[in-house]
Amino acid sequence: MAASSGGSGSEKAALFLLMLGEEQAAKVLKFVDPHEVEVIGTAMAAIRSVDNERAEAVVDDFRMAMQSETSLGVGVHGYVRKLFTSTLGEQKGATLADRVLGDEESQEMNSLRWLEPDALLHMLKDEHPQLIAITMAHMDQEQAGAVLKQMAPDLQDDIVMRIANMQTIPQAAMRQLQTVLKKKLSVTTTFKNRKIDGALTVAGIMNGLDPEAETRILESVAKKNESLSEKIQDLMFLFSNLINIPDKGIQLLLREVSSDILPMALKGADQGVRDKIMGNMSKRAREMLIEDMDARGPMKLSDVEAAQKDILAVARKLAEAGQIDLGRGGSDDYV
């Protein structure tokens, strides 16, 4: 809150918190730096009485700020951020706003979503691979995949490895990224720390690549970390994705899958996948499958997942041989 009326920023914050009441004020103060709590607390202790004019001046500040925003909650995040930074100062106020507002989508990332892959590639081409990786980890996976496609093979491998190993992006790296994007996009919203599931992010990005690039990158990752490569592969194509395989591909897959593991795998599958599989079987084969599934009764989840992985391994093998299309945007041709 600006100090234009009703006293200094700390005095106005103290007064407003007193008007909120003990319970609500405590909820706010638990997010405030101890030093700032001391400052506001001192200001509270100094308040002996409050006349209507002074109280109304503080409330008017809020009313005027709210009038600059749209109604029905739209723009509230921006209002709260301005409130905190005006009251506590730019740095501490921004920190408090980040805590309170949580993972609000940043303006930088919203701006990036409007750019074509060519423009993004041009923007990032001179940056350090780690900065590129952090930026792509924040993009929509389809958009990041489109950018990755246009990169040189060695850079593709490097970027994928960096994203796959991400867990939490350091604050210093986020500030560096913010500086770069401010310069190139002319935006000002502050970035916050963000947790990243690197392997899952990479899996989503790589689903948009062509099979040749996909295979090469996974092999490159495997040379450095084989278990990470396997994890990415598991995340890239899930059992539920079988529903996207064309019918001819499902029929070929069924010919290659052991009749013993299919009932086990389908026990844990959603109805859509079951319908897809059974819809590509003869009536007799379908009836036998259903009877087998019923006869097996409850099964361990680990056994079901193992059976599903076996089927996915067969599907990947057939896809690598060009015999089926996994339904991830590739060609529908068969060889």
UniProtKB/TrEMBL annotation:
<keyword id="KW-0145">Chemotaxis</keyword>
<dbReference type="InterPro" id="IPR023087">
    <property type="entry name" value="Flg_Motor_Flig_C"/>
</dbReference>
<keyword id="KW-0975">Bacterial flagellum</keyword>
<dbReference type="InterPro" id="IPR032779">
    <property type="entry name" value="FliG_M"/>
</dbReference>
<dbReference type="Pfam" id="PF01706">
    <property type="entry name" value="FliG_C"/>
</dbReference>
<dbReference type="InterPro" id="IPR011002">
    <property type="entry name" value="FliG_a-hlx"/>
</dbReference>
<dbReference type="Pfam" id="PF14842">
    <property type="entry name" value="FliG_N"/>
</dbReference>
<feature type="domain" description="Flagellar motor switch protein FliG C-terminal">
    <location>
        <begin position="220"/>
        <end position="326"/>
    </location>
</feature>
<keyword id="KW-0969">Cilium</keyword>
<comment type="function">
    <text>FliG is one of three proteins (FliG, FliN, FliM) that forms the rotor-mounted switch complex (C ring), located at the base of the basal body. This complex interacts with the CheY and CheZ chemotaxis proteins, in addition to contacting components of the motor that determine the direction of flagellar rotation.</text>
</comment>
<feature type="domain" description="Flagellar motor switch protein FliG N-terminal">
    <location>
        <begin position="8"/>
        <end position="106"/>
    </location>
</feature>
<keyword id="KW-0997">Cell inner membrane</keyword>
<keyword id="KW-0966">Cell projection</keyword>
<keyword id="KW-1003">Cell membrane</keyword>
<comment type="similarity">
    <text>Belongs to the FliG family.</text>
</comment>
<keyword id="KW-0472">Membrane</keyword>
<dbReference type="Pfam" id="PF14841">
    <property type="entry name" value="FliG_M"/>
</dbReference>
<feature type="domain" description="Flagellar motor switch protein FliG middle">
    <location>
        <begin position="117"/>
        <end position="188"/>
    </location>
</feature>
<keyword id="KW-0283">Flagellar rotation</keyword>
<protein>
    <recommendedName>
        <fullName>Flagellar motor switch protein FliG</fullName>
    </recommendedName>
</protein>
<dbReference type="InterPro" id="IPR028263">
    <property type="entry name" value="FliG_N"/>
</dbReference>
<dbReference type="InterPro" id="IPR000090">
    <property type="entry name" value="Flg_Motor_Flig"/>
</dbReference>
<keyword id="KW-0282">Flagellum</keyword>
